[in-house]
Amino acid sequence: MLRDSFGRVATDLRVSLTDKCNLRCTYCMPPEGLDWLPSTQLLTADEIVRLVAIGVERLGITEVRYTGGEPLLRRELVEIVARTAALRPRPHISVTTNGIGLARLAKPLAEAGLDRVNVSLDTLDRDTFKRLAHRDRFDDVIAGLAAAQDAGLLPVKVNTVLMRGVNDHEAVPLLRFCLDQGYELRFIEQMPLDAQHGWSRADMVTADEILGLLTGSFDLTPDDLEERGSAPAERFLVDGGPARVGVIGSVTRPFCGACDRVRLTADGQVRNCLFANEESDLRAALRAGASDAELSERWIAAVAGKRAGHGIDDPSFLQPSRPMSAIGG
Ligand code: SAM
Ligand code: SF4
Asked: Binning pLDDT at 50, 70 and 90, where does residue 219 land?
Protein backbone atom coordinates (compact mmCIF):
# COMPACT_ATOMS: atom_id res chain seq x y z
CA MET A 1 0.00 0.00 0.00
CA LEU A 2 1.00 3.62 -0.48
CA ARG A 3 0.89 4.75 3.15
CA ASP A 4 2.42 7.99 4.39
CA SER A 5 3.85 8.74 7.80
CA PHE A 6 0.53 10.25 8.92
CA GLY A 7 -1.36 7.04 8.18
CA ARG A 8 -3.08 8.29 5.02
CA VAL A 9 -3.29 5.74 2.21
CA ALA A 10 -3.16 6.85 -1.43
CA THR A 11 -5.69 5.01 -3.57
CA ASP A 12 -6.56 7.74 -6.11
CA LEU A 13 -3.98 8.17 -8.86
CA ARG A 14 -4.01 11.30 -11.05
CA VAL A 15 -1.98 10.89 -14.21
CA SER A 16 -1.03 13.80 -16.42
CA LEU A 17 -0.89 12.63 -20.03
CA THR A 18 0.54 15.85 -21.47
CA ASP A 19 1.41 19.34 -20.30
CA LYS A 20 0.14 20.82 -23.60
CA CYS A 21 -3.22 22.48 -23.95
CA ASN A 22 -5.45 24.04 -26.62
CA LEU A 23 -6.84 26.65 -24.19
CA ARG A 24 -5.06 29.30 -22.15
CA CYS A 25 -7.25 29.74 -19.07
CA THR A 26 -5.92 32.79 -17.28
CA TYR A 27 -5.74 31.01 -13.90
CA CYS A 28 -3.61 28.27 -15.44
CA MET A 29 -1.23 29.53 -18.12
CA PRO A 30 -0.23 32.68 -20.00
CA PRO A 31 -1.74 33.47 -23.44
CA GLU A 32 1.51 32.63 -25.20
CA GLY A 33 1.58 29.15 -23.64
CA LEU A 34 4.53 27.60 -21.88
CA ASP A 35 7.75 25.83 -22.79
CA TRP A 36 6.26 22.37 -23.31
CA LEU A 37 8.13 19.32 -22.12
CA PRO A 38 10.32 17.80 -24.86
CA SER A 39 8.62 14.71 -26.27
CA THR A 40 11.52 12.48 -25.22
CA GLN A 41 10.76 13.35 -21.62
CA LEU A 42 7.08 12.43 -21.85
CA LEU A 43 6.16 8.95 -20.78
CA THR A 44 5.13 6.78 -23.72
CA ALA A 45 1.73 5.05 -23.66
CA ASP A 46 3.47 1.78 -22.75
CA GLU A 47 5.31 3.47 -19.88
CA ILE A 48 2.13 5.07 -18.58
CA VAL A 49 0.23 1.80 -18.65
CA ARG A 50 3.09 -0.05 -16.99
CA LEU A 51 3.23 2.43 -14.09
CA VAL A 52 -0.56 2.51 -13.74
CA ALA A 53 -0.58 -1.31 -13.71
CA ILE A 54 2.00 -1.32 -10.91
CA GLY A 55 -0.15 1.14 -8.99
CA VAL A 56 -3.31 -0.91 -9.45
CA GLU A 57 -1.95 -4.45 -9.20
CA ARG A 58 0.66 -3.98 -6.48
CA LEU A 59 0.00 -0.75 -4.61
CA GLY A 60 -3.73 -0.56 -3.97
CA ILE A 61 -4.72 2.15 -6.46
CA THR A 62 -8.48 1.86 -7.08
CA GLU A 63 -9.16 5.09 -9.01
CA VAL A 64 -7.30 6.38 -12.03
CA ARG A 65 -7.94 9.88 -13.34
CA TYR A 66 -6.31 11.00 -16.60
CA THR A 67 -5.69 14.71 -16.81
CA GLY A 68 -3.13 17.26 -17.99
CA GLY A 69 -2.65 19.77 -19.66
CA GLU A 70 -5.42 18.62 -21.96
CA PRO A 71 -5.62 14.80 -21.95
CA LEU A 72 -7.76 14.68 -25.11
CA LEU A 73 -4.74 15.99 -27.02
CA ARG A 74 -2.96 12.71 -26.32
CA ARG A 75 -3.52 10.61 -29.42
CA GLU A 76 -3.29 7.28 -27.57
CA LEU A 77 -5.93 8.25 -24.97
CA VAL A 78 -8.52 5.67 -26.09
CA GLU A 79 -5.88 2.96 -26.11
CA ILE A 80 -4.58 4.01 -22.67
CA VAL A 81 -8.11 3.91 -21.24
CA ALA A 82 -8.79 0.49 -22.78
CA ARG A 83 -5.56 -0.93 -21.35
CA THR A 84 -6.37 0.59 -17.95
CA ALA A 85 -9.84 -0.97 -18.01
CA ALA A 86 -8.25 -4.37 -18.63
CA LEU A 87 -6.30 -4.23 -15.34
CA ARG A 88 -7.46 -6.33 -12.40
CA PRO A 89 -8.84 -5.38 -10.00
CA ARG A 90 -10.42 -3.03 -12.50
CA PRO A 91 -9.95 0.56 -11.35
CA HIS A 92 -12.56 3.30 -11.68
CA ILE A 93 -11.42 5.42 -14.64
CA SER A 94 -12.18 9.08 -15.29
CA VAL A 95 -10.85 11.98 -17.34
CA THR A 96 -10.68 15.69 -16.53
CA THR A 97 -10.92 17.66 -19.75
CA ASN A 98 -11.75 21.07 -21.14
CA GLY A 99 -14.23 19.25 -23.39
CA ILE A 100 -12.72 20.22 -26.73
CA GLY A 101 -12.79 17.09 -28.88
CA LEU A 102 -15.12 15.26 -26.54
CA ALA A 103 -17.96 15.44 -29.07
CA ARG A 104 -15.88 13.07 -31.22
CA LEU A 105 -14.20 11.06 -28.46
CA ALA A 106 -16.90 10.52 -25.83
CA LYS A 107 -18.32 7.39 -27.47
CA PRO A 108 -14.99 5.67 -28.24
CA LEU A 109 -13.78 6.50 -24.72
CA ALA A 110 -16.93 5.04 -23.16
CA GLU A 111 -16.54 1.92 -25.31
CA ALA A 112 -12.92 1.64 -24.19
CA GLY A 113 -14.08 1.53 -20.56
CA LEU A 114 -14.04 5.14 -19.38
CA ASP A 115 -16.47 5.53 -16.48
CA ARG A 116 -16.83 9.29 -16.14
CA VAL A 117 -15.65 12.74 -17.16
CA ASN A 118 -15.20 16.08 -15.48
CA VAL A 119 -15.54 18.92 -17.97
CA SER A 120 -14.29 22.40 -17.10
CA LEU A 121 -16.66 25.25 -17.90
CA ASP A 122 -16.32 28.67 -16.30
CA THR A 123 -18.89 30.71 -18.20
CA LEU A 124 -22.02 30.52 -20.34
CA ASP A 125 -21.06 33.61 -22.27
CA ARG A 126 -19.07 33.19 -25.48
CA ASP A 127 -17.22 36.50 -25.14
CA THR A 128 -16.28 35.80 -21.54
CA PHE A 129 -15.08 32.37 -22.61
CA LYS A 130 -12.85 33.95 -25.24
CA ARG A 131 -11.48 36.43 -22.74
CA LEU A 132 -10.93 33.79 -20.10
CA ALA A 133 -9.51 30.99 -22.22
CA HIS A 134 -8.04 33.07 -25.08
CA ARG A 135 -9.70 30.80 -27.62
CA ASP A 136 -13.16 30.88 -29.22
CA ARG A 137 -14.11 27.29 -28.34
CA PHE A 138 -17.25 27.69 -26.23
CA ASP A 139 -19.44 25.71 -28.65
CA ASP A 140 -17.00 22.80 -28.66
CA VAL A 141 -17.19 22.53 -24.88
CA ILE A 142 -21.00 22.60 -24.84
CA ALA A 143 -21.08 19.95 -27.57
CA GLY A 144 -18.54 17.88 -25.66
CA LEU A 145 -20.65 17.96 -22.51
CA ALA A 146 -23.74 16.78 -24.40
CA ALA A 147 -21.76 14.00 -26.10
CA ALA A 148 -20.42 12.79 -22.75
CA GLN A 149 -23.95 12.48 -21.44
CA ASP A 150 -25.17 10.72 -24.59
CA ALA A 151 -22.28 8.27 -24.28
CA GLY A 152 -23.28 7.41 -20.70
CA LEU A 153 -20.24 8.90 -18.99
CA LEU A 154 -22.36 9.61 -15.94
CA PRO A 155 -22.70 11.60 -13.87
CA VAL A 156 -21.15 14.30 -16.06
CA LYS A 157 -19.44 16.67 -13.67
CA VAL A 158 -18.66 20.28 -14.48
CA ASN A 159 -15.72 22.11 -12.84
CA THR A 160 -15.96 25.87 -12.48
CA VAL A 161 -13.39 28.32 -11.15
CA LEU A 162 -14.96 31.67 -10.27
CA MET A 163 -12.89 34.84 -10.59
CA ARG A 164 -13.80 38.13 -9.05
CA GLY A 165 -15.19 40.59 -11.60
CA VAL A 166 -14.83 38.07 -14.44
CA ASN A 167 -17.43 35.34 -13.96
CA ASP A 168 -18.53 35.47 -10.32
CA HIS A 169 -21.88 36.89 -11.45
CA GLU A 170 -22.46 33.60 -13.29
CA ALA A 171 -22.59 31.32 -10.25
CA VAL A 172 -26.40 31.12 -10.32
CA PRO A 173 -26.84 30.78 -14.14
CA LEU A 174 -24.12 28.13 -14.25
CA LEU A 175 -25.86 26.08 -11.58
CA ARG A 176 -29.24 26.51 -13.33
CA PHE A 177 -27.69 25.38 -16.60
CA CYS A 178 -26.19 22.29 -14.97
CA LEU A 179 -29.44 21.43 -13.19
CA ASP A 180 -31.34 21.76 -16.48
CA GLN A 181 -28.89 19.56 -18.33
CA GLY A 182 -28.45 17.00 -15.56
CA TYR A 183 -24.77 17.80 -14.95
CA GLU A 184 -23.27 17.96 -11.47
CA LEU A 185 -21.54 21.28 -10.90
CA ARG A 186 -18.53 21.71 -8.62
CA PHE A 187 -17.09 25.12 -7.89
CA ILE A 188 -13.34 25.11 -7.22
CA GLU A 189 -11.53 27.85 -5.33
CA GLN A 190 -8.79 29.36 -7.44
CA MET A 191 -5.43 28.06 -6.27
CA PRO A 192 -1.94 29.57 -6.58
CA LEU A 193 -0.85 27.30 -9.42
CA ASP A 194 -0.80 29.54 -12.48
CA ALA A 195 2.45 29.77 -14.38
CA GLN A 196 2.34 33.57 -14.25
CA HIS A 197 2.12 33.62 -10.44
CA GLY A 198 -0.85 35.98 -10.69
CA TRP A 199 -2.91 34.45 -7.86
CA SER A 200 -3.83 36.66 -4.93
CA ARG A 201 -5.85 35.73 -1.90
CA ALA A 202 -7.93 38.90 -2.22
CA ASP A 203 -9.02 38.01 -5.76
CA MET A 204 -9.95 34.45 -4.87
CA VAL A 205 -13.69 33.83 -4.61
CA THR A 206 -13.87 31.73 -1.45
CA ALA A 207 -16.10 28.75 -0.73
CA ASP A 208 -18.08 30.90 1.73
CA GLU A 209 -18.63 33.54 -0.93
CA ILE A 210 -19.69 30.94 -3.48
CA LEU A 211 -22.27 29.54 -1.07
CA GLY A 212 -23.42 33.10 -0.37
CA LEU A 213 -23.89 33.72 -4.09
CA LEU A 214 -26.04 30.60 -4.43
CA THR A 215 -28.19 30.74 -1.33
CA GLY A 216 -30.23 33.72 -2.54
CA SER A 217 -31.54 31.59 -5.41
CA PHE A 218 -31.37 28.00 -4.18
CA ASP A 219 -32.11 26.13 -1.00
CA LEU A 220 -28.88 24.31 -0.18
CA THR A 221 -28.73 21.61 2.47
CA PRO A 222 -25.50 19.85 3.36
CA ASP A 223 -25.36 16.37 1.91
CA ASP A 224 -23.14 13.65 3.36
CA LEU A 225 -21.07 16.32 5.11
CA GLU A 226 -20.43 13.87 7.90
CA GLU A 227 -19.07 11.44 5.37
CA ARG A 228 -17.00 13.85 3.36
CA GLY A 229 -14.12 11.41 3.87
CA SER A 230 -11.43 11.96 1.32
CA ALA A 231 -13.77 13.72 -1.13
CA PRO A 232 -12.59 17.29 -1.59
CA ALA A 233 -16.02 18.61 -2.55
CA GLU A 234 -18.48 19.58 0.13
CA ARG A 235 -21.76 18.58 -1.46
CA PHE A 236 -25.15 20.20 -1.03
CA LEU A 237 -28.59 19.05 -2.07
CA VAL A 238 -30.19 21.72 -4.25
CA ASP A 239 -33.80 22.55 -3.42
CA GLY A 240 -34.19 19.29 -1.51
CA GLY A 241 -32.34 17.15 -4.08
CA PRO A 242 -31.69 14.79 -5.66
CA ALA A 243 -29.59 17.28 -7.66
CA ARG A 244 -26.39 18.35 -5.92
CA VAL A 245 -23.76 21.03 -6.14
CA GLY A 246 -20.21 20.74 -4.83
CA VAL A 247 -17.85 23.38 -3.50
CA ILE A 248 -14.16 22.59 -3.32
CA GLY A 249 -12.48 24.94 -0.87
CA SER A 250 -8.95 23.74 -1.46
CA VAL A 251 -7.52 26.94 0.04
CA THR A 252 -9.97 27.98 2.76
CA ARG A 253 -11.33 24.53 3.68
CA PRO A 254 -8.41 22.21 3.02
CA PHE A 255 -8.96 18.48 3.08
CA CYS A 256 -5.31 17.47 3.41
CA GLY A 257 -5.94 15.37 6.52
CA ALA A 258 -8.08 12.96 4.52
CA CYS A 259 -6.21 13.18 1.22
CA ASP A 260 -5.97 9.89 -0.66
CA ARG A 261 -4.33 11.19 -3.84
CA VAL A 262 -1.01 10.68 -5.50
CA ARG A 263 0.05 12.16 -8.82
CA LEU A 264 2.16 11.07 -11.74
CA THR A 265 3.39 13.90 -13.96
CA ALA A 266 3.55 13.58 -17.74
CA ASP A 267 7.31 13.10 -17.43
CA GLY A 268 7.05 10.31 -14.92
CA GLN A 269 7.56 12.01 -11.56
CA VAL A 270 5.57 10.98 -8.50
CA ARG A 271 4.14 13.97 -6.65
CA ASN A 272 2.24 13.72 -3.40
CA CYS A 273 0.41 17.00 -3.75
CA LEU A 274 -0.34 19.73 -6.29
CA PHE A 275 1.65 21.99 -3.98
CA ALA A 276 4.57 19.66 -3.31
CA ASN A 277 8.03 20.93 -4.02
CA GLU A 278 9.49 17.43 -4.07
CA GLU A 279 9.15 14.87 -6.85
CA SER A 280 10.44 11.31 -7.20
CA ASP A 281 11.65 10.26 -10.59
CA LEU A 282 10.14 6.97 -11.73
CA ARG A 283 10.92 7.59 -15.39
CA ALA A 284 14.70 7.44 -14.96
CA ALA A 285 14.43 4.20 -13.01
CA LEU A 286 11.98 2.76 -15.51
CA ARG A 287 14.20 3.63 -18.47
CA ALA A 288 17.27 2.25 -16.65
CA GLY A 289 15.55 -1.14 -16.59
CA ALA A 290 14.09 -1.24 -13.07
CA SER A 291 11.81 -4.19 -12.34
CA ASP A 292 8.18 -3.77 -11.26
CA ALA A 293 9.26 -4.59 -7.70
CA GLU A 294 11.95 -1.88 -7.77
CA LEU A 295 9.55 0.69 -9.17
CA SER A 296 7.03 -0.22 -6.46
CA GLU A 297 9.69 0.30 -3.78
CA ARG A 298 10.52 3.75 -5.14
CA TRP A 299 6.87 4.69 -5.29
CA ILE A 300 6.21 3.47 -1.73
CA ALA A 301 9.21 5.48 -0.48
CA ALA A 302 8.00 8.59 -2.33
CA VAL A 303 4.54 8.48 -0.74
CA ALA A 304 5.98 7.74 2.72
CA GLY A 305 7.47 11.26 2.65
CA LYS A 306 4.15 13.03 1.96
CA ARG A 307 3.78 16.25 3.95
CA ALA A 308 0.92 16.88 6.36
CA GLY A 309 -0.67 19.67 4.29
CA HIS A 310 -0.22 22.18 1.52
CA GLY A 311 0.41 25.11 3.86
CA ILE A 312 -1.01 27.79 1.55
CA ASP A 313 -1.98 29.71 4.68
CA ASP A 314 1.53 29.43 6.09
CA PRO A 315 3.67 32.59 5.73
CA SER A 316 6.50 30.39 4.45
CA PHE A 317 4.33 28.98 1.63
CA LEU A 318 6.12 28.83 -1.70
CA GLN A 319 4.19 28.29 -4.93
CA PRO A 320 5.53 25.16 -6.65
CA SER A 321 7.80 25.89 -9.57
CA ARG A 322 5.74 23.67 -11.89
CA PRO A 323 2.39 25.09 -13.03
CA MET A 324 -0.84 23.08 -12.71
CA SER A 325 -0.78 22.13 -16.38
CA ALA A 326 2.57 20.38 -15.97
CA ILE A 327 1.63 18.64 -12.74
CA GLY A 328 -1.77 17.37 -13.80
CA GLY A 329 -4.78 19.10 -12.26
N1 SAM B 1 -7.33 20.73 -19.27
C2 SAM B 1 -8.21 19.98 -18.45
C3 SAM B 1 -9.29 20.86 -17.85
O4 SAM B 1 -9.18 22.08 -17.94
O5 SAM B 1 -10.23 20.29 -17.30
C6 SAM B 1 -7.50 19.21 -17.36
C7 SAM B 1 -6.40 19.90 -16.63
S8 SAM B 1 -6.89 21.32 -15.66
C9 SAM B 1 -5.34 21.79 -14.99
C10 SAM B 1 -7.79 20.52 -14.35
C11 SAM B 1 -8.71 21.40 -13.56
O12 SAM B 1 -7.93 22.31 -12.83
C13 SAM B 1 -9.68 22.22 -14.36
O14 SAM B 1 -10.99 22.01 -13.88
C15 SAM B 1 -9.26 23.64 -14.15
O16 SAM B 1 -10.35 24.52 -14.12
C17 SAM B 1 -8.59 23.54 -12.80
N18 SAM B 1 -7.59 24.58 -12.55
C19 SAM B 1 -6.58 24.99 -13.34
N20 SAM B 1 -5.87 25.95 -12.75
C21 SAM B 1 -6.46 26.18 -11.55
C22 SAM B 1 -6.20 27.05 -10.47
N23 SAM B 1 -5.20 27.92 -10.50
N24 SAM B 1 -7.01 26.98 -9.39
C25 SAM B 1 -8.04 26.10 -9.34
N26 SAM B 1 -8.32 25.24 -10.33
C27 SAM B 1 -7.56 25.28 -11.42
FE1 SF4 C 1 -5.78 24.04 -20.41
FE2 SF4 C 1 -7.13 22.95 -18.43
FE3 SF4 C 1 -5.17 24.76 -17.95
FE4 SF4 C 1 -7.44 25.58 -19.07
S5 SF4 C 1 -7.20 24.66 -17.01
S6 SF4 C 1 -5.35 26.10 -19.76
S7 SF4 C 1 -8.00 23.84 -20.30
S8 SF4 C 1 -4.91 22.75 -18.78
From this structure: very high
